[in-house]
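Intended use. Records like the one below are meant for learning the mapping from a protein sequence to its folded structure. Do not use them to infer anything beyond what is encoded.
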Amino acid sequence: MIFDFDGVIADSEIIALAELQDCLADHGLTLPMDSLIDRFLGASLSSITAALAEHTGAPVHDDFREVWYARLFDRYRRELQPVPGIMALLDRLDCDGVDYCIASGSSDRRLGVALECLDLAGRFHGRAFSADDVARGKPAPDLMLFAAARRGRTPGDCIVVEDATAGVTAARSAGMRAIGFVGGTHLAPVAKRQAERLARAGTFATSANHAQTAELLLGVPSRRPVDRVED
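Structure written out for the chain above:
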């Protein structure tokens, strides 16, 4: 099982998107939250800054990352919580002997801080992978393939849990099945629309909470072939 992190394990996207919205506005790009989700949920920082540079016509300097991270990490340390139900799901996977890992579009730095805040660094030691581990982040398949290889698995043996279309596209491009997760706080106002977008990207099922995720993961039918989407 390959889990996205932000919005699937950590209920962090509600914080990250709010701080990103403020930082973008400070640099001249004002977006309502639904547009921010559509454009940047699951996106790498490099793609976000590229979009900002295109909008403003000016280069985006390193201080953008540092200001956003400073705001983000301060709130993580005060507010960050796991997505409800994820701890019980991980415990159940452990009991059933099901291997799992993280494939996050975040940087190593952001992922590491969040894992520490949730007291999950030890649990995911050696099985938390980020966009920094590969040349191309999501929606390219590189990170999914990297995570599977590090866990000694073939793509067809993997099921991915994702809340963003970029992650679903990455999973499908890697030849993996994907479950769309819409139970994060950030998706509450747009859960139905996001479920539809994830389905169009190629999910085989949608989960509104981690009790449903457990049913889908542990009661999933026998493995069937997945058409690999050429990158």
